[in-house]
Design brief:
This protein has ten helices and nine strands. The protein is α/β, with parallel strands linked by helices. The strands form two sheets. Strands 1-8-7-2-5-6 form a six-stranded parallel beta sheet.
């Protein structure tokens, strides 16, 4: 089980239980978060951990039902939510907090999407991602990057180059609205974006699978326990 690294916020597990209780009873998400955050005196990072990690049980269960391991989809086409996967892995590498969420996905709370820039660390993340994909023999891989973000075209080029060096069948492109293509993708998709998870039938937590192989990364487990659920 991932470590429950909540020493910086000793009441975080209790706050998560209260937040989940309110969501289960239909409280508006932001109102419930404000109420719980104020009650426990949580800072912005702790509130983001709750926001990205805790969900109403019925919502979490519906998303877990869609979650598949990459190893269970050999030869299947895979669509990657490029910036979503890369940013989560970059945050992990920087030692920023990650949350293991009720819905089975791992998310970062780095809030760096708008400021994301291609760097030498990006190539390292792409190489780690390509190695993991190559070990699991997926079918054709389509990677969609958000065109408005800086150097997305260059990021797509690097992705094609690094993935091809692992003999992966890959297409990568910067597109105006990746979510539109991913929601209609004829195969599994890799993302932790809640709107995309809700819109698609089969989802892989690709970044999460890689993160779980690195126990030194700062993973905070806020999940409600469920007997028999694999971690």
């Amino acid at each position: 089980m991932p470590p429950r690294m909540t020493e910086s916020w000793p009441n975080l597990q209790e706050a998560a239980a209260d937040f989940r209780f309110l969501l289960a009873r239909g409280y508006p998400r932001q109102n419930a978060l404000d109420l719980v955050g104020n009650r426990y005196g949580l800072n912005h990072t702790a509130r983001q951990l709750l926001h990205r990690g805790v969900f109403a049980p019925v919502v979490a269960a519906a998303r877990r039902a869609k979650l598949r391991r990459l190893r269970d989809l050999p030869g299947r086409p895979l669509g990657l939510d490029g910036h979503n996967v890369l940013i989560t892995l970059e945050c992990a590498g920087r030692g920023l907090p990650l949350v293991a969420a009720d819905d089975g996905f791992i998310r970062d709370v780095g809030e760096i999407s708008a400021a994301f820039k291609v760097s030498p660390a990006t190539d390292q993340v792409l190489a780690r991602l390509a190695d993991y994909l190559a070990d699991h023999a997926p079918g054709p891989v389509d990677v969609f990057y958000d065109a408005p973000l800086s150097l997305s075209g260059e990021l797509a080029r690097r992705t094609r180059e690094i993935f091809a060096s692992r003999n992966l069948s890959v297409q990568a492109a910067a597109v105006p609205v990746p979510e539109r293509l991913l929601s209609e993708f004829p195969g599994a998709i890799a993302t932790s974006d809640t709107a995309l998870i809700d819109a698609h039938a089969t989802v892989v937590d690709l970044a999460g699978e890689i993160i779980r192989r690195r126990p030194s990364w700062r993973l905070i487990d806020l999940r409600e326990p469920h007997p028999g659920v694999e971690v």
